[in-house]
Design goal:
The protein has strands spanning about 10-15, 25-30, 40-45, 50, 55-60, 70-80, 85-90, 100-105, 105-110, 120-125, 125-130, 140, 150, 155-160, 180-185, 195-205. The protein contains no helices and 16 strands. Strand 6 and strand 7 (about 85-90) form a beta hairpin. With about 210 residues, it is an all-beta fold. It has two domains: about 10-90, Sandwich (Immunoglobulin-like), CATH 2.60.40.60; about 100-205, Immunoglobulin-like, CATH 2.60.40.60. It is rod-shaped and about 100 Å long.
C-alpha cells in the first residue's frame, strides 16, 4: 500500500477455500488479537480491518513510509462447524516523493586555479532530501551542458572537462576578472522526482574559457 492513502483503502482480498457445500462452506474472516512477534514489522491488528464475509482487507490508518515500512497480522477463516485456518499477512508500505531536495546554499562560488588540469575538482555542491528510500537519493546534473565543466552525479563535485589553458599573451596584472555561471539541479533517480536548482558562479579569470583564440 502506498503511503498517504486515506483510511478504508483496499489492500487485498483474502480468500480461503472450504470443500463443504451449503452453510458449512461459508466462511467468516477475522483478524486475530494475538501479536505476531516479528520485530522488524509493526503490529497490523490496529492498522487493518477485514470484512468478515468478503475477506476484503482495508486500511484503518493513513501510513507514513518514513515512520513504518511494513506491518504483519494474522487472519483466521472459520466455517460454521468451527473448523478454521489462519494466514499471516505482511503489508509493505511504499514511499512517495514528498519532499523537495534542498541545497545547503542557494548559490555557490568557486574558482578555477591557475594551471588547473582536466579532471580537477574545483568545488562541490550539496543537497539533502528528507524522503527515505529511492526518493531520498540525491543525484546532481547540470541544467545545460558546459564545454568546460561537468558534475559528478552522486557526489556533486564540479570538475574540469578541459585543461584551464591560461589566457595567451596576458600578464597577471592585465587580466580582467571574468565569471561563468552554471545551474545545478538535484533530483532523485525516480522518473517523477521533485527537482531543486542552485546557481554556481565560477571565477575563470585565470583561464582562456570563453575567449576567442588569438
Amino acid at each position: 500500500i502506498r503511503e498517504n492513502l486515506p483510511p478504508g483503502t483496499l489492500v487485498t482480498t483474502l480468500r480461503a477455500v472450504d470443500a463443504d457445500t451449503g452453510a458449512f462452506g461459508e466462511l467468516r474472516y477475522v483478524v486475530l488479537e494475538q501479536a505476531v512477534g516479528d520485530p522488524t514489522t509493526g503490529d497490523g491488528r490496529d492498522a487493518f480491518a477485514v470484512n468478515g464475509s468478503s475477506g476484503e482487507l482495508r486500511s484503518r490508518l493513513t501510513f507514513d513510509y518514513e515512520r513504518a515500512k511494513a506491518f504483519q497480522l494474522l487472519v483466521r477463516a472459520t466455517d460454521a462447524g468451527n473448523a478454521s485456518a489462519t494466514v499471516t499477512v505482511r503489508v509493505l508500505v511504499t514511499g512517495e516523493d514528498e519532499y523537495d531536495p534542498i541545497f545547503l546554499s542557494p548559490s555557490f562560488n568557486f574558482e578555477v586555479p591557475e594551471g588547473a588540469r582536466k579532471g580537477q575538482s574545483i568545488g562541490r555542491v550539496l543537497a539533502t532530501d528528507e524522503d527515505e528510500g529511492a526518493d531520498g537519493v540525491v543525484l546532481y546534473t547540470l541544467a545545460k551542458p558546459s564545454p568546460y565543466f561537468a558534475i559528478n552525479q552522486t557526489t556533486g563535485s564540479i570538475y574540469l572537462r578541459v585543461d584551464s589553458q591560461p589566457q595567451a599573451g596576458a600578464g597577471r596584472a592585465k587580466r580582467e576578472p571574468r565569471e561563468m555561471s552554471l545551474e545545478v539541479q538535484a533530483r532523485s533517480p525516480l522518473p517523477a522526482s521533485r527537482v531543486a536548482s542552485a546557481q554556481v558562479t565560477i571565477d575563470v579569470t585565470h583561464t582562456s574559457f570563453g575567449l576567442a583564440p588569438d
